[in-house]
Amino acid sequence: MNHCVFCKIISGELPAHRVYEDEQVLAFMDISPINHGHVLIIPKIHYSELRSIPLATSIAVWEVVKKVEYAIWQTPDLICDGTNVLQNNGAAAGQEVFHAHFHVIPRREGDGSRFRFRTINSSEQMRNDWAAKIKDQIDAA
């Protein structure tokens, strides 16, 4: 994908501050961090969204997400009180770079950043209906 900024980072066309790399996964510092220590984790093969990543690659990516999240907690100067692990799929969900990726964001009490979603009314019957419909799709897969 010649137009993909993350693919250019993988190939070395663009620089990045790499924190982890193996055959399938790359982790590097976000250039627009929410907090110091904000890391992005990506598969090295271009997949636009989470649902397009093969299961084996998803497992490899998730293992790196966990390694990075643990390392952030262990990094003394970050003074981490919590972390967010964030993954967006599609523009409507806030995805800006259309190469599947996870954010691992160190959080501190009172850091001023919050992820807030509005909630909707949901009856017991509605949740039951949606659960059945989603379960049907899982069973069909």
Task: Please give a structural write-up.
- There is one protein chain.
- With 141 residues, the chain is α+β, with helices and mostly antiparallel strands.
- It has three helices and five strands; from the N terminus they run H-E-E-E-H-E-E-H.
- It has a five-stranded antiparallel beta sheet, with helices on one face.
- The chain is globular, with a radius of gyration of 17 Å.
- The relative contact order is 0.16.
- The mean pLDDT is 94.
Short summary:
The protein is α+β, with helices and mostly antiparallel strands. Helices cover 31% and strands 18% of the residues.
Would you identify the regions where 5 or more consecutive residues have pLDDT less than 50? Answer: none
Oligomeric state of the chains present here: single chain
Shape: globular
How much of the sequence is in beta strands?
Answer: 15-25%
Helix content: 25-40%
| Main pleated-sheet profile | 5 strands, antiparallel
